[in-house]
Design a protein that fits this description.
The complex is a heterodimer. By secondary structure, chain A is of the alpha/beta class. Chain A is built from 14 helices and 13 strands. In chain A, strand 6 (169-173), helix 7 (185-188) and strand 7 (192-196) form a beta-alpha-beta unit. In chain A, helix 2 (37-56) packs parallel to helix 8. Chain B has a single domain (5-121), classed as Alpha-Beta Complex (Sufe protein. Chain: A). In chain B, 42% of the residues lie in helices and 20% in strands. Chain B contains 5 helices and 3 strands. The chains are: A alpha/beta, B alpha+beta.
Chain lengths: 383, 122
Amino acid sequence: MKVYLDHAATTPVLKPVIEKMLPYFGERFGNASSLHFLGEEAKEALEDARKTIAKHINAHPDEIYFTSGGTESDNIAIIGSSRVSKRKHIITTRIEHEAVIETALYMQKTGYDVSLINVKSNGIVDIEELKEKLSENTLIVSVMLANNEIGTIQPLKEISEMAKRYGAIVHTDAVQAIGKMQIDVKELGIDMLSASAHKFYGPKGIGFLYVKRGTSVTNIMFGGGHERGLRSGTENVSGAVGMAAAIQFCYENFKELEEKYKRWKEMILNACREIKGFKLNGDPNKRVVNTLSLSFEGISGEALAELLSINGIAVSTASACSSHSHQKGVSHVLKAIGLPLRYAEGTIRVVTGADNTDEQIEYFIKHLKAAVSTLRKVGGDNT
Amino acid sequence: MRYSKILISHFTNPQNNGKLKDYNAYAEGYNPSDGDSIKVFIQIEDNRVKEVSYLIKGCPRAIASASYTTELIKGKRVEEILSMDERVIREGLELTDEKFDCIPLPLRTIKKAIVDITESQS
């Protein structure tokens, strides 16, 4: 049996999504900027996709900008806003994806002041610390909506309200949140949001940046002025069509998917609780329901993931001893929540998805228990 | 990561794992660069390794290496083991990238156990 439980890394493109995309590789291959009938057809598909995406996050279609994915969206949000402001302070957190952290650190090298806010042991950002760092000089506050490793959901609404008092832009990397939680950009009060289609059953190489009307941000790439000047480059029409079909799938089937994820979460956690030295990382309630970071004391998460992989189960590990520095091998997120090394080393990430079945989860549980027991036995712990 | 068949075979079915009932050489090894830890138990008779076993907490490479290394040294003279090059293990497991410090850990620990017992006897 093959069981894919790594849906935070990427997801399969669903068949209905592929079917909607296919014509745009073939008979409807036009460039959306062309004025002839093929161009018009492509433009229409692109704008329909924009409307669909906007509807599902409660935005206006003209607030959606197509990009190549989450990394590009994050870069435009941070670098692009810096180019039209005199403010020189960036706030983000220690548990952000590298697309945000590395961009912020690049900005630091160019003279910006960067504050990396700590998170509490439950993986939720320290609001008080963030509040203290805010000033009239704060350009942007970038806090992810859902964490990619431990799944914790950050209090964006509260953060937006605080940041607005200082006139700072609020950006969120929602790459791991789209499709897994209801998102209303107006309710959250945010100015920008990044998303990537391949994390929610769409194709790779396409994403979007939501930019609230009136937000000061400019292009960081130069070219033909596509996407109203914010992102030059011939539009990825098939990708946009696929991304729209994928977001539609997620929200049209939201309740059904959520119920399945909840059921699987309980099945997995109930089984894990029977294992000695088990720990669930991140707040037990404020989290996307399909993402579980599981730690087993005293074993290697890499060995555990490898044993599961040999049995056809794909999960990811949060720690790998492939680097020269052991500490470096443990993920920055597990370090940020202060997880002791003996747990951090034995951590795997399990992320369920729309393509999983009850039978697959049972198969995973069976092999997880066996693998933990095997590794403990090899280490001399027979309990 | 894609591993060789031999590495996977030793990882999934580690040989000589456990604690020997009778042993006269013992050492613990720890690799601070990647967190693996090992305990080795050796029974040396007539200057040869009669039996060897280990308990290990580590990554797939470290576990496979412990299994492979202990198979390799069984029956060998202690001088031969002490002069054994780590590259023999790396080549045997078909993972010659030297960034993996986990591969030589079992051999280093076995050598330490042999040196300790030899020094205490002399």
